[in-house]
Structure to design on (485 residues):
């Protein structure tokens, strides 16, 4: 292979030479928490080049990849010196150009990576469509399935039963679906879990369309939640494990972007079928959600398995084949394979001898874990609890309460879906430039303000005594503006 760097070279990440030189990439002290952050930032940074080459040779021999040893050495050095590509003597001019182009032309990748992105995008759209297809069907099946004051005796009971049916998928996610994610991924891997969850979603979609009572619909939607839970937890992880670093944030962000697209699609389906015979309309609206998960089931069959999952199972040669399908050159595949392998092995060493309870305790006892856990919990809880999802689930009913007719409310709901998707696109293209935290800090105050605007607008010109809706134009206009913004 090309000439290797000497172990005394000064090029590398800042501070790498000031650390104590390691005899091997796995020569770390798991009990020393002070340096774990630096180690995981780039675990190869302080390993001497000659030792790194010996580690790579052993890796290739252990996993029957001796034929790729030269490219693997190049990949390991590329991982160690990610900012030294232009002066790297061990890379050919063509290899340098490809690696540099990976950063300057972020969307220049093999077809398979775009195929995988399309599959993940449709899986996210499935999630959004499951949310809002029910939105358009709700005011229709409430009447058809007896969720009315006349049948149930009180508005309070109607509201409780409606909430139970609407929230059934997320009840299933919370009590069962999300907890099945880990065992499903452990047994069936990422692709298998995505296939199973989308198959369940497709079957439940058909089931929803043929129900004959609200109790039956509740059970069908509960089963739908079993697919939603595993899918929503697995697809972003799968995308992150397959994506190159320069676009990893954007590809993980695509989950929200295409969930918003699915929300829009669900609203459009509501408009498309909302004007036909009522007993057929809500069945077609709910049943139409079978299309996207069925397509995903077909797409995922042709996708490569997650390389990281394969490495965790000791199937490094298969992981290399996955990377070869997802990267433009063998050197890039070798770079990501070896770097991922080292990361997985270091995690195993750090977590050796620990069980579920000790690892759970470390979420609080280890400062870096505690900060990450608190940030994640606060953002996720705030996102779900703030009330914005109510717009996705109940916007048609909200517009009807605001003075719209059924058909007009379906059209207005479609508007919220379209705006939701259009304004998710800027985040997709800027998340790797501005970062997650600045985008959250910038957008959350606007979200809070317009949710408050929408809620307070219902106090304008309330309905006359004995009526349930108000025909006040200012009230309707304020509600509509608040919902859209």
């Amino acid at each position: 292979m090309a000439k290797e760097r000497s172990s005394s070279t000064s090029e590398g990440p800042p501070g790498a030479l000031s650390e104590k030189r390691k005899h091997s990439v796995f020569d770390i002290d798991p009990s020393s928490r002070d340096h774990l952050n630096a180690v995981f930032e780039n675990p190869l940074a302080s390993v001497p080049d000659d030792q790194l080459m010996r580690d790579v040779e052993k890796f290739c021999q252990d996993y029957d990849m001796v034929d790729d040893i030269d490219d693997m050495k190049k990949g390991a050095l590329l991982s160690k010196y990610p900012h030294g590509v232009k002066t790297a003597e061990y890379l050919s001019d063509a290899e340098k150009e490809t690696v540099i182009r990976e950063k300057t032309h972020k969307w220049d990748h093999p077809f398979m990576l775009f195929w995988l992105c399309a599959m993940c995008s449709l899986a996210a759209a499935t999630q959004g469509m499951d949310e809002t297809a029910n939105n358009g069907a709700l005011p229709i099946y409430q009447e058809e399935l007896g969720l009315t004051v006349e049948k149930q005796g009180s508005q309070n009971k109607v509201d409780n039963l409606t909430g139970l049916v609407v929230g059934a998928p997320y009840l299933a996610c919370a009590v069962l679906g999300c907890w099945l994610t880990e065992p499903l991924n452990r047994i069936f891997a990422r692709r298998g879990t995505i296939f199973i969850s989308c198959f369940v979603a497709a079957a439940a979609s058909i089931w929803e369309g043929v129900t004959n009572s609200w109790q039956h619909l509740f059970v069908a939607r509960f089963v739908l939640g079993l697919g939603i839970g595993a899918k929503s937890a697995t697809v972003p992880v799968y995308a992150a494990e397959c994506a190159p670093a320069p676009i990893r944030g954007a590809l993980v962000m695509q989950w929200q972007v295409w969930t918003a697209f699915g929300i829009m699609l669900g609203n459009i389906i509501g408009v498309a079928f909302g004007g036909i015979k009522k007993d057929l309309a809500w069945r077609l609206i709910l049943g139409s959600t079978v299309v996207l998960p069925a397509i995903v089931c077909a797409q995922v069959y042709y996708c490569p398995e997650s390389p990281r999952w394969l490495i965790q199972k000791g199937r490094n040669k298969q992981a290399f084949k996955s990377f070869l399908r997802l990267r433009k050159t063998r050197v890039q595949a070798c770079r990501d394979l070896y770097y991922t392998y080292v990361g997985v092995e270091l995690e195993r060493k750090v977590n050796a001898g620990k069980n579920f309870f000790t690892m759970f305790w470390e979420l609080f006892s280890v400062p870096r874990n505690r900060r990450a856990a608190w940030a994640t919990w606060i953002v996720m809880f705030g996102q779900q609890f703030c009330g914005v999802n109510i717009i996705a689930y109940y916007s048609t009913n909200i517009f009807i309460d605001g003075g719209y007719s059924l058909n007009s409310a379906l059209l207005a709901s479609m508007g919220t879906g379209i705006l939701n998707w259009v304004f998710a696109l800027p985040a997709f293209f800027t998340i790797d430039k501005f970062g997650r935290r600045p985008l959250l800090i910038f957008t959350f105050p606007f979200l809070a303000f317009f949710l408050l605007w929408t809620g307070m607008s219902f106090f304008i010109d309330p309905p006359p005594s004995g009526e349930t809706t108000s025909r006040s134009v200012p009230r309707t206009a304020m509600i509509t503006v608040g919902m859209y913004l």
Remarks:
- Residues 1-20 have pLDDT under 50 and may be disordered.
- The radius of gyration is 26 Å.
